[in-house]
Amino acid sequence: MAEKWLVGVDLGGTTVKIAFVTSDGELIHKWEIDTNNSEDGKYIVPDIAKSIERKLEEWGQTKDKLIGIGMGAPGPVNTETGVIYQTVNLPWKNYPLKERLESETSLPVVVDNDANIAAIGEMWKGAGNGAKNLVCVTLGTGVGGGIIANGQIIRGTNGAGGEIGHITSVPEGGAPCNCGKTGCLETIASATGIVRIAKEKLAKDEKKSVLHLRTVTAKDVFDAARENDELALEIVDYVTFHLGLALANVANALNPEKIVIGGGVSKAGDILVERVRRYFDRFAFPRVAEGATIAIATLGNDAGVIGGAWLAKTAFLQ
Ligand SMILES: [Zn+2]
């Protein structure tokens, strides 16, 4: 029998990433479509179904080739029912994603949170390298988190497990967060948070800095820090202090083997890892610090679709 494929789907607010993946986690083909948010998002699922069918045709295959679909969605998901509760990035509320996609594709579907499937992807094929105890943190527009303990994703009692971005870093007087709290890690270690901190610092700091001359991005801050710009170094120090502290506290509870940092900000690379490591070692229980490696994610944008494929494999291929 010819080998069957898994389908990984990573739904985001602006694009849907889709891939055909082998049962060993090798990408056969990946592509993207736009997320059509009009009319309460009623086109999203039919668009995905049609796109998968069209790709199958292009590859001269039929639906028999596919085992099932594993999908990540941005927001808390009930993994039993496949209902997505509510999300800031999509117009859905209590949307029966699994049921709708199954009826549109006639394929079995399993749904999870997008940060969770990215963590699974990194565990399976990326920087996690098969680690059974893994913490993933994604530093993008927000800060996402996925935790795998004993090979199991931690979903929690109502789908909000692993929300590392909403660990409180500044208990009093912190910046407002999208979640409704203040002082969350997300307000500091996301790309948005880094820019906010830079702007605040630039407004009151007279120190000479190349950052005064530009519209600042998170990348600018790390680039300038690498050139030993004093002000940029102070910002990086503040950000990595809070990231190291939060990750150490998470690690103290979980004793992970790997901590994987992904998302756009992680492109900063060594300077980020080295400084996070410094604070991590200061705040982690010594035995926890000894056991943990901190690494940059290696799958980039493919982590979600590969993690989705793993979900489908685990659910439908036994
Ligand atoms: Zn928050």
Give structural attributes.
single chain; 318 residues; alpha/beta; 5-stranded mixed sheet; 11 helices; globular; binds zinc ion
Could you characterize the architecture of this molecule?
This protein is an alpha/beta fold and about 325 residues long. It contains eleven helices and 13 strands. The protein has helices at about 40, 45-60, 95-105, 115-125, 185-190, 190-205, 220-225, 230-255, 270-285, 285-290, 305-315, and strands at about 5-10, 15-20, 25-35, 65-75, 75-80, 85, 95, 110-115, 135-140, 145-150, 150-155, 260, 295. A five-stranded mixed β-sheet has the order 3-2-1-4-8. The chain has a five-stranded mixed β-sheet with strand order 11-10-9-12-13, sandwiched between helices. The chain has a three-stranded antiparallel β-sheet with strand order 5-6-7. Helix 6 (about 190-205) crosses helix 8. The longest helix is centred in the last third of the chain and has 25 residues, at about 230-255. The chain is globular. It starts with a strand and ends with a helix. The mean pLDDT is about 95. Bound molecules: zinc ion.
